[in-house]
Each structure stands twice: as C-alpha cells, then as structure tokens.
Amino acid sequence: MKKIFVAATVTALAVIGSVAFTALASAQAPQDAGTNVAGAKAITIWRDPGCGCCDTYADYLETNGFSVTRVGDREFDKRSVEMGVPERGIGCHLAEIDGYIVSGLVPVEIIERLISERPDVTGITLPGMPGNAPGMAPAKTGTLKTYAFGKDGVAVYSDE
Questions:
Q1: Whole-angstrom Cα distance, residue 18 to residue 64?
Q2: Scanning 14, 21, 65, 121, which has its CA 20 to 30 A from the CA of 3?
Q3: 8-47: pLDDT as tens digits
Q4: Is 150 within 8 Å of 121 (Cβ atoms)?
C-alpha cells in the first residue's frame, strides 16, 4: 500500500511540475507584433473625436478582424506630418499598425498586404476623404489610389 501511495505522489508531482512549467513558458513567450491576445491585429487610430466617418472606418476594421484603439486627437494632422506622412498626403485620420503608419481610409486588404509584405517604407496613405472608401461608403466601390511614403520619397502603392 505504501508503494502505491509513493508512486501516486510522485506521479502527481510530475504532472503538477509539467503544468507549472508549461504555464510559465507560455506566460514568458513573446506575442507576435501587432497581434493581441485574441488574435486580432492591433491598430491605433488618432482621429478628430467628432468624426463620424473615422468611427465608421474603425467599426469596419473591427468587423474585419482588427482590434482598434481609438484616440481622440483634434490635431491628428500635425501628428501625421510628425510621423512622416507627406503634408499633401494626409488622410481622414492617422493609424499605426505593426510599426507602419497608415493615413486615411485605406481598405483592409491593402493594410493586410502592407503588414504581410513588409516593404521598406514608413507607411501608406489614402489622401483626403474619397467618397468610395470604407468609412465614407457602405463598401468600397471603384478604384482607390494608395501611396507609400518613406526615405525614398512617395510612390503609388496600390491603385485598385
């Protein structure tokens, strides 16, 4: 009987040690950049607090798997220039995702391409407030020209 008790105790301690090690290892494992615990892509948006299209755009991002942090900033345009957006390229709001700057109502598929391809740019912008862009229209219609900007200047990133 004593041998069974000892064997059961040793087995229980081994299981507890294994569980504790696994919990500690997973707690210390780094998360993927730009992804929160639930697996959504984390994005922060600075926008004018009264801008309805920016909130509609943030809702659009959330519907498409992004975790959006909204920051009210009446001077997001100044912040945009400080973060590298060309002054003539400022969009409706400013965003940051996975080390990139995204200015304006850029469609999800273009943001996803940016973070998967990882080009050597500071970010992308869809200048102004195009009426056919997400946030302004229920769905993107027609083509939208998105520009990349960075140390090499400005170039068309997407025209779709």
A1: 38
A2: 21
A3: 333 333 333 333 333 333 333 333 344 444 567 999 999 9
A4: yes
Give 97's strand partners: 100
Computed over every residue of the chain, the mean pLDDT equals: 81
Amino acid occupying residue 63: T
C-alpha–C-alpha distance, residues 63 and 141, integer Å: 18
CB 138 within 8 A of CB 112: no
- Coil, helix or strand at residue 58: helix
Q: 3-state class of 110 per DSSP?
A: helix
CA 129 to each of CA 17, 34, 132, 134, 135: distance values in angstroms, whole numbers, following the listed order: 57, 26, 9, 10, 9
Residue in the block written with tokens 């993927």: 32
Residue range 2-6: mean pLDDT, rounded: 46
> Between residues 148 and 49, which one has the greater pLDDT?
148
Question: Which pLDDT score, from 0 to 100, does residue 38 have?
Answer: 55
Question: 128 — alpha (psi -120 to 50), left (phi > 0) or beta?
Answer: left
Whole-angstrom distance, CA of residue 42 vs CA of residue 16: 34
Encoded amino acid at 18, one letter: S
